[in-house]
Amino acid sequence: MTKESQIVVRDLDMGYGTFILMRDLNFTVNRGDIFIIMGGSGCGKSTLLKILIGLKEPSRGQVFYNGVSFWEMETEERERIMKRFGILYQSGALWSSMTLAENVALPLEQYTNLSPGQIRELVSLKLSLVGLAGFEEFYPSEISGGMRKRAALARAMALDPDILFFDEPSAGLDPVSSRLLDDLILELRDSLGSTIVVVTHELASIFAIGNNSIYLDVDSGTMTASGDPKKLLAESKDPRVRKFLTRGEEGTREERL
Amino acid sequence: MKKENTQELPSRANLSFSHSPEGDLLILVSGDWRMGQQVPSVEAVDGQLTSDSKVLRILFDTKELKGWDSGLLTFLTKVMACCSEKKILLDKGGLPQGVQRLLALATAVPERKEARREAKREPFLPLVGVRAIEFYRTTIEMVSFIGEASLAFVKFLGGRASFRRSDLVLLLQECGAQALPIVSLISLLVGLILAFVGAIQLKMFGAQIFVADVVGIGMVRVMGAIMTGIIIAGRTGAAFAAQLGTMEVNEEIDALKTLGISPMEFLVLPRMVALIIMMPLLCLYADLLGILGGLIVGVGMLDLGVMQYLNETRSAVTLTNLWIGLFHSAVFGVLIALSGCLRGMQCGRSAEAVGYATTSAVVTGIISIILATAIITFGCQVLGI
User: Fold this and answer.
1) What residues in B contact A119, CB-CB < 8 Å?
2) CB of B110 less than 8 A from some CB of A
3) Residue A198 and which of A43, A122, B52, B363 are 20 to 30 A apart at CA?
């Protein structure tokens, strides 16, 4: 069955001022994919994410959401599309002066006409989905890093988004918490049918959850591989991709031989 | 099973109920169940359970369900709570797979009842006790901080303090040179204001020449130092609190401590020394600008000659007044640095805490300046200077 394309990136260049970080990016994210953007540190994964979510303009090229060019539309139209995104930032980015309940409630208060009672019920539901039932009145500074990530995920899911974007979701988490988060991501995709875009370089997560991916290579300044991460590991001949996916093992072994 | 009790609402989300003789209540969920649309409330289900006490099990039929999101999930969690309360079995088999999985996820980790905070009013006496203990701890912290700063200063005078000279030079520039424009503006205006206020009264007695005395003595002895102190407290004291507060949030101060570097010597001392050096210089500059402000009024409004005004100023302002003014400013420099750095290092680990620390630094700095002025003025009175 042909999958529906939800995000299409064409001939994208990205950079800062005259410095171009990555060129000629072309890829498609289908509905229901868990799409991994991977690469070494400093290759521009988070920059690409910012372009996809509307925080930074590309230097060249286009991003299409359901066939409509994201960066060529009017600001109001773009903001309407952005409301359908849910974003989990690397450090959570919870608003420190608000309780967890207030953090999750804010998008609902801003963009829906729900009553305070209905919003309270939804907030409780979202927090219980991430295992934080009972912590509504806590402030971000009063909970652990892993709990903050989960609370931030609850906020990202507040408006039942079409597409979820995760920026390094496992950063700062212990292996067990990281695994639990991976399981949660899979559950969200399976239950809600959400499309999920994940920026990460955590190999365990990449293989556990990704069914499509691109590899950004900092040396060549472009994407050098795309596809299912497990297939890339099995079939890719690109030494840099193999070195990345084997955590440097293959590169080291070849050098020794 | 016969369909009965169909409840239709203006929205497209619908509920229908049918009862079986075996004690099953079948809930037919149809339409579009989404957030923001009007959906049937759980009272409809509760009403069914109340009217038929023989219900043993609830089942769902969602064949006519068009679409759903969290709106359906919140309704179902309330139905689950209702069933749990009435000890009725809930069969989720007829719900969409995604809904079943999300409900399982939502109930996988039970609510931490002991975590939930209840808003309760603290009794008065315990509250007084808690506040008194907090005040005591804050006072001890402040006294300790002042003590450590003094020891660090003694080490500095002995050439044994460990901080970067480049940091001190940068701070001298930030506290001194970069403050000149704002100090110029405020001091000129203060001199103008003093002259205006003095002129109105003195003109009545034909003694307008003494405007030079009012402005000169006022600015040099105390006003120059106070106005400069207030400007620097708001500008530099706040910046110190924000810098050190952000370092606290980013654990940079912890990193210094674990390396065995004293944050007092590395961070607080250069800031204190920078202000001790620059405040008297800024004060001197402010005094001159204030006198210039008075000169503008004297020459422009009171028909005094420039040299006449300046000679009167020179004869009125003694060296004693000058040293007292400079002493004020040096003391204010220490107080502003200590207030800013103390509040910065007491900062909590959030963005809101940095804002609070900055505000507190300015308020503490200004209050300290006024208190110090009162003490020094009293001391001068006692000493007869």
Assistant:
1) none
2) yes
3) A122
